[in-house]
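Let us practice reading a record.
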Amino acid sequence: MTVILCRAARALVVFAVAAATVHAAPFFEPGGGTGFLLSTAVQAPAGTTQIFGNLTDGTGGQIPNTVDLYEIALSSLTTIVTPFSTSLVPFPSLFLFDSLGLGVAWAAADLATGETTLPSILPGTYFLGISFFGIFPASDQPPSEQGDIFDPFSDGGGPVGPGGASPLTGWYGDVGSQWDISAYRIDFFTTGEPIPEPATVFSAAFALLGVWLAARRRRA
């Protein structure tokens, strides 16, 4: 019994240290920006709760960057939202692809609230794209409407476009030159059972250690 308690306490301490190292935190787009292809997507750390970045249409001599693509790992059921704010990208679109780059779902902004929402995403590894409205993913080369992965005339949904059975190869579309540089924020809301906070795990570990020490004193 003493050996079992000792091992359990030791395992809990190790888990608590690991949990502390992946504690939920925001992630900021790297200074050089992200890529927009599967091979150049930026990986967000495990436990990311928000992503902050910028898009630009090329106005004022800026290099156009109308799409950002991230690789994300979700450990529980998650809803992904870009909230409305006058200081953020107006009416952005969100696109979700599986680990192979196949389309999963997309969402356009709700014109009433300004928010863009991808609800109830199952745990797994995905690629998440955010773009100005009017930019769409395709699976042909060069990217065009003939390779649409999703239906660009809908408000969102699954990969029902003519290119929906093939992985992402690029993006096409035009946003004009009215947005200049626009910031964005992507929020991740988990609806599954949360991972215990490190403090809770530490408390459980030390409680088990206390029981183990008391047992040793009684034996002595």
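A brief commentary: The chain has two helices and 13 strands.
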